[in-house]
Amino acid sequence: MTNYLGKNITKFDAKPAVAVDARLHGGYNKGAVDTFELAATSDDDTVMVFRLPVEAIVKSLKFGCDDLGTAGVVSLGLFTKGNDGDYKVVKADAFADDVDVNSAAVPMTEMRFEKANISTITDTAWQLAGLTKRPAYSDLYVGITVTTGTTATGTVSLEIVYSE
Predict the structure, then answer these.
(1) Residue 149: closest CA among 97, 89, 37, 73
(2) Is 3 inside a domain boundary?
(3) N or C: which end of the chain has fewer CB atoms below 10 A?
(4) What is the pLDDT of residues 101-148, one digit of tens each?
(5) Number of domains in the chain
């Protein structure tokens, strides 16, 4: 029988031991939830839902909604907030792309790895946003981009779990 070691245990077992980032082993998770009524939307509308530290490790992002009419496709991604107060897209589909919200209600569904490979589980929010280095600003925003407008009002709910 062969024993294999994960990356964190390898660090713990090293002589001398190597520090393991608390965001990855033994740290505390934080989270947020939001639910709101979303009126009929137009193409390219956005909804900002969560503020997230750029160094956060996103462990889970769940999304669910009512049937939002006879049309509607959304993406879940990351945005910045400019000094002018406007939100600007960094990566509109960092988490999910082309989520059909018009055929039927979407039950609360894990979206964290809908777009990203499982190897990104230890990536920071700024890495998930596709940035090549840590930005000077401190927060990113998780938001919804309405790729194709919706035609009905309905409830939208999201839940995020992360460590920082």
Answers:
(1) 73
(2) no
(3) N
(4) 998 999 999 999 999 999 999 999 999 999 999 999 999 999 999 999
(5) 1
